[in-house]
Structure prediction request, 1245 residues.
Amino acid sequence: MAAAEPKPPTGAAAARRLARSCWSAFWDYETPKVIVVKNRRLGIVYRAVQLLILLYFVWYVFIVQKSYQDSETGPESSVITKVKGITLSEHKVWDVEEYVKPPEGGSVFSIITRIEVTPFQTLGTCAESMRVSNATCDSDEDCVAGQLDMLGNGLRTGRCVPYYHGSSKTCEVSAWCPVEDGASVSQFLGTMAPNFTILIKNSIHYPKFQFSKGNIENRKGGYLKHCTFHEVSDLYCPIFKLGYIVEQAEENFTELAHTGGVIGVIINWDCDLDLSASECNPKYSFRRLDPKHIPASSGYNFRFAKYYKINGSITRTLIKAYGIRIDVIVHGQAGKFSLIPTIINLATALTSIGVGSFLCDWILLTFMNKNKVYSHKKFDKMVDAPERGAGPGICASESSQQDCVLTDARGLAQL
Amino acid sequence: MAAAEPKPPTGAAAARRLARSCWSAFWDYETPKVIVVKNRRLGIVYRAVQLLILLYFVWYVFIVQKSYQDSETGPESSVITKVKGITLSEHKVWDVEEYVKPPEGGSVFSIITRIEVTPFQTLGTCAESMRVSNATCDSDEDCVAGQLDMLGNGLRTGRCVPYYHGSSKTCEVSAWCPVEDGASVSQFLGTMAPNFTILIKNSIHYPKFQFSKGNIENRKGGYLKHCTFHEVSDLYCPIFKLGYIVEQAEENFTELAHTGGVIGVIINWDCDLDLSASECNPKYSFRRLDPKHIPASSGYNFRFAKYYKINGSITRTLIKAYGIRIDVIVHGQAGKFSLIPTIINLATALTSIGVGSFLCDWILLTFMNKNKVYSHKKFDKMVDAPERGAGPGICASESSQQDCVLTDARGLAQL
Amino acid sequence: MAAAEPKPPTGAAAARRLARSCWSAFWDYETPKVIVVKNRRLGIVYRAVQLLILLYFVWYVFIVQKSYQDSETGPESSVITKVKGITLSEHKVWDVEEYVKPPEGGSVFSIITRIEVTPFQTLGTCAESMRVSNATCDSDEDCVAGQLDMLGNGLRTGRCVPYYHGSSKTCEVSAWCPVEDGASVSQFLGTMAPNFTILIKNSIHYPKFQFSKGNIENRKGGYLKHCTFHEVSDLYCPIFKLGYIVEQAEENFTELAHTGGVIGVIINWDCDLDLSASECNPKYSFRRLDPKHIPASSGYNFRFAKYYKINGSITRTLIKAYGIRIDVIVHGQAGKFSLIPTIINLATALTSIGVGSFLCDWILLTFMNKNKVYSHKKFDKMVDAPERGAGPGICASESSQQDCVLTDARGLAQL
Prediction:
């Protein structure tokens, strides 16, 4: 080789030759030289491991987890609610306008089931509630004028006055009088509440997939005027009885109506958008949301008032309302076939199948050496082939078995 | 080998030797033996497949899908709205306080466009609405005292009384009287509503990337007092005419104002935080959210009342309000360069490039054997090199072409 | 080969033979032929690179980013709030019912700190506000009857009338009279507001992991009646002073109380559900949400009214309320060990470790050829073994060092 070269090449020529040969090398194809181990037991182990990994991927990753899909969570959602029903307290009839707050029909609303009314409050002075700390007094000296208790009802005037009922005395306050604890009257308006119907119109939109759907379906014959929700037969009639919601949340209605509470109506839109739109259905679940196991903070109530002007002075009716607050919570996840997660998961699957060969290499190195191992170098063989014959080049179809499966290691060494 | 060994080593010595050689083997470097196939056609196929896969990854995965980014969806969002404008019904002027409910300026609010007013309701007895089922009667016998229809207006007294107008009769109920269907008067206050302006202040925050931005921009000269939203020229002036919103949602304003409806103003903050903050702009879209194609549940209305005390007895004005509810929905996705997804995608890309060699191996085995295949064992070569000369050791630069590209398979076999 | 074959096989026989040999080949095990380079320096580089990559994955990907976990963002959340406290303006005591809007205790509510009251408004005619453009006039000719300014207060009557105060004149409008700008009185009720307490009950639920938790804890002795939130000692007492919230948001209370503003109380539930539930704690942060740096739109206010009927005609008290709106925003991310991300990340880690060998191959090709490179073909060796002895087959334990570590390249070539 290179014996006849008269003088060493100049730098430029060498660089040119280098570049030329690099370019040529770029178009070479490299493939690893492999050893084929013709051992049936090892082959079975190898294929079994590969099969297990493949099954895992096909079953769990692709079928159970749908990892070939691109997904989107948290659809855009709009909720319109409407409560219907009337109820009675001892003295009067209550309609929706009175017991649903706020009235606008949004996703969060309260159905008042019990109220404590303090009518005829005016701004003036009266005895502080006994439940306010340090409110009880014996004489004016116990009350500091100008003191303002954050949990009280007003500004202390410094006088000690008789309480609303009983013989005790409390400090006088400048406040809305009489104070709630002294004069409120309780009314229960939850007797008919389990029969109230709640219509929950919900429509969702997955912007990534341009998919919209609603939870309501039109059927002929005024279907929506008479139907009630049923998970199987009337899934697209989102009209719920309040009693049904409370029951599904596993709460006691009477108890809940007295103390108040928050019930979540959770609408779940888990959709496989590779299927038809009719396979994408809402799933409803119901759950108590406020922490009922903590006595100090359990229940739900709020206060509002109605203001009147009588003879030029303002009077209000203060209402402490206990009620069932309904929070309609919409969530969901949509998935649709997408190339990227598919490719990532396929690549992972293929890489993981390679793990099978690690195992087999280890078996090979540890246990196989004492047995005869039959092997040949596949790609060498292919190249060797023309030397011996004109067969198509893959071992099995081209040569007799003895060519391909060597019977002793010596033969293998020759290769 | 080992012929001169006088006695077999003891167990301890063998273990020591094993440990020493394992330790030594740990520092070995293993690399697969490769065959270089010097076939230009195969090389071109190989590189073309690699190029295609690479292009796919660079273009689709990295440029289109931005898979090198870590992402966060659902920013923290705060919405403040303010409606301005006045309108007229036949008899009176309406200002914002009267037609926007609730007044607090949150992300969901209704603009009332039509009302059905039932004034002077008091608690008493009167004829039930004819639209309540079984309400019409001929005599008292048709009415069951104490019956409470959930979709009616009150508790039946058992009497049959003349209806508000016409000659028919309905059962008497104890309720807020007169009932809505009998005495309500309709007023349309949507004539000027298309000109109402709605200011939507929105600020978002992506906690993962510590990025905040608002949809409002300060410009000099009282810009915000006079501007109106325009997608291109006034993107940061979030003042919308109600008519514009309805038009963008492709709805008929007059129709919508009569039946009511829900329009979503969707603000989308899709941000590539690798770019400057000024590239992260809100995108507005407008969509009808309630299911208008379902007659039975279409439209949007709610009831509220104003309570008055006249001569000690309570009177209320019940208002059934039809309106356009605006739901401001904010969503978005922010992405920023992050190492992990980049590495995962790069590794996937590299693994996928390997797929090219599967294809070429298959071509090699199937078609190539009949042609001359030029190859040499690269790593063997490199090691062989010192034997022959002092070249730098990579085939092309060190040896003449005939060394490297073997012209027949026999030469290859010698290696 | 095949010399004794009497006649060429028929097509069917050939196909059978092909199928048989394919089946047999299916059970072969292939493993790449490797070269072991016994060079300590190269080995150290190789292992060091592998170690670095491994450390990166173990530390950053698995420990910092917890990439072995499946995650879920955006828990279902329910918020109940309750404000307590009383405050004073110059003339009167204000209680919760009056200064908290809306009263229902949802996640968004306003605490009114300043009001501009316009009492005794009735529908009638009066002078337009001077702040409305083109409202000032000298004579009736300046006022167009029937004109309706969207930013004004009513419908112009066409007359020019004296203003409420001063000597100027404005156009008369048919509106709620007197108009706000002419007759409103300001009252500040924020003096005691920093001491208001806000109870924020929040419970979250991660549906994917079936995990629920609340931000409130029961302790004996009426703990919740007396405690105040503290990040360390009282994390589960979600009772905040308004002053504390404003301070944490780094705002000036007095300024905020005058102009109004929106403060976000952000509750973050980032939970590693592989740990015990007690490790999943809420993190509170406080942030000003409205764009205070933009003068034209800064602050927060809204209008509401109280309607009275006096002698048959309706009067209202219009209140423009400035206040601190509290938006309770709940977000979070839960993670739990899951096979799929673990496998994807492991596969990526393994693939990336392979990058180490690219580097070493390059070193090998570039720098190593001038030195002696010791190597042997591992798998060949293993197969060669029986020929030479009965050792366990791994190079080191079976043969003397000279077998395994070849001392010159010539020896290597023989293999």
About this structure: Chain C touches chain B through 97 residues (CB under 8 Å).
